[in-house]
């Protein structure tokens, strides 16, 4: 039988928007949602959790197991809980206490979507900011954008970085001459420049592009692949399963992620956790996430990106240094810490809430 959400005594009921935690091809928001949902419920078994789903996902949620101290609810109107956490910056109605997590605002600042989508996104973001008592930003970059673009007071913003799942043990499989990119193929991910930069690395290297290829501007990015004189050395895999993605991280010698704009950049940490040396952008949140454990380049400068790739493909000592630095860096981003910091945000809104 489902657990009662009537919270006696000093117990509280927490509602989480779980809509984006479902699906075969989870985005970064989906990964984050699942870690928050199950991490919070596991860490605080004496409290009750309601996983809210929007109508188009509710039936699908019935296939997903929930913890003993949680139950499913349809997200319709104002959630009847002590605190509601919108895990993907959508808050149509304020609850008793409301928290929203903002992952990025690049749709507002760049030409990475249609004008209609940008208008809808901007309105939703303003509405979510207005209806939230506290806001979690996944990076300092996103926190700064909340202030600058939406006028959110700094006192309401809490920076809680994402985590990364560290492999239980590193693979002993031999690395191959592979430059790996993982992410949706779209204009913002800067794939066309990556392809042109790859054309300058030695001929015995391959470029693997792994990710759904239906993002905004994908056709233009894929056109660069087809036009490349190194086309035979480029693999476009489309969406890959978790197992296949892990295998790619274990095989690759270099990870390239020259995105133009990221609110965080989970693939950077994933690659580092698997011991893959990283080259990424000196832009938005990526320097904040990568620290000194990656080569940073201007994502608009193909020459600089190509030079970094050539260095990584030819300098074994550099790869070894970045591998060790990356492993150390990834170990500093734990999902357990993200859960604990999120709970502390809840405590600021519910003074009686203990550990």
Structural class: alpha/beta
Report the mean per-residue pLDDT as an integer.
Answer: 92
Provide a count of the helices. 13
Radius of gyration, Cα only, in angstroms?
21 Å
- Unreliable stretches, pLDDT < 50, 5 or more residues? 1-9
SSE series = EHEHEEEHHEHEEHEHEHEHEHEHHH
Helix content: 25-40%
Strand arrangement within the widest β-sheet reads 3-2-1-4-5-6-7
Distance between the amino and carboxyl termini: 27 Å
The total beta strand count reads: 13
Task: Give the percentage of residues in beta strands.
Answer: 15-25%
Biggest β-sheet description: 7 strands, parallel
CA-based shape:
globular
Task: Tell me what you see in this structure.
The protein has 355 residues and is an alpha/beta fold. Helix content is 39%, strand content 17%. The protein is built from 13 helices and 13 strands. The protein has helices at 28-43, 55-61, 106-109, 115-130, 140-150, 191-198, 218-227, 242-251, 266-273, 286-290, 302-314, 316-330, 335-349; strands at 13-17, 48-53, 70-74, 83-86, 98-102, 134-137, 157-159, 178-182, 206-210, 234-238, 254-257, 278-281, 294-297. A 7-stranded parallel beta sheet has the order 3-2-1-4-5-6-7, with helices on both faces. The chain has a 6-stranded parallel beta sheet with strand order 10-9-8-11-12-13, with helices on both faces. The model is unreliable at 1-9 (pLDDT under 50).
